[in-house]
Amino acid sequence: xxxxxxxxxxxxxxxxxxxxxxxxxxxxxxxxxxxxxxxxxxxxxxxxxxxxxxxxxxxxxxxxxxxxxxxxxxxxxxxxxxxxxxxxxxxxxxxxxxxxxxxxxxxxxxxxxxxxxxxxxxxxxxxxxxxxxxxxxxxxxxxxxxxxxxxxxxxxxxxxxxxxxxxxxxxxxxxxxxxxxxxxxxxxxxxxxxxxxxxxxxxxxxxxxxxxxxxxxxxxxxxxxxxxxxxxxxxxxxxxxxxxxxxxxxxxxxxxxxxxxxxxxxxxxxxxxxxxxxxxxxxxxxxxxxxx
Length: 292
Fold this sequence. Notes:
The protein is α/β, with parallel strands linked by helices. It has helices at residues 11-22, 54-60, 82-97, 133-150, 174-183, 202-213, 231-242, 266-269, 279-291, and strands spanning 2-6, 26-31, 42-46, 64-67, 104-110, 155-161, 163-165, 188-190, 196-197, 199-201, 219-223, 229-230, 248-250, 260-261.
């Protein structure tokens, strides 16, 4: 099975590439930059999403494409005008790629495409109400890409990712930021301690995507643990492991019943996928890795 990955040097894409190779898949990565010591098990195709080496891609002849390339820098990605550009660039990319006989596309969407209902998000019953330029762009790409690929008899799995964390994430992401500040002995005041999120380890995201690669499941699929945790509980967990429970302060405020972003992951579970990394072991692994 020949799998082309865009964004294969990023947080999620990079972990997927390593997991895919380890599982025996034949993998190519589209990237502007080839690592100084590239893995001999990966074919590197130079180029960007907007300007790929089409002759190399056609020669390599991918069966499946996992599209993970997108802007994801904390503090920037939600409102960046680049989101709109990426919609058009992605459509152009798949318009040509699907002409080479691609049979399946797996594209990373986002859980914040959903309306905030206060209940677990279900792919079929939860309404969509993307509010940020980022989530609107993802939703727009889904709406436009589906008929484009259907006309070319190429299936589309739209993977709505919840809250990934793990080694290699941007240092400004919540889990890494909490670890760094608490390790340094800095007090942390939580502005939204009762906010509930569905955190999933990057290894489990990669595992879920591998299940989608090997399946023929079409449509939207939630990629989450199906379990929510309060931000305060996550912070207390990290502080406890680091031995600084006294550094956490929860800002007073009324709990917002709609500030709950948790997946109904029934569709994903039906593929036989199960999460393997608990939040406790995932956090401990990140802390231990940072000590090396």
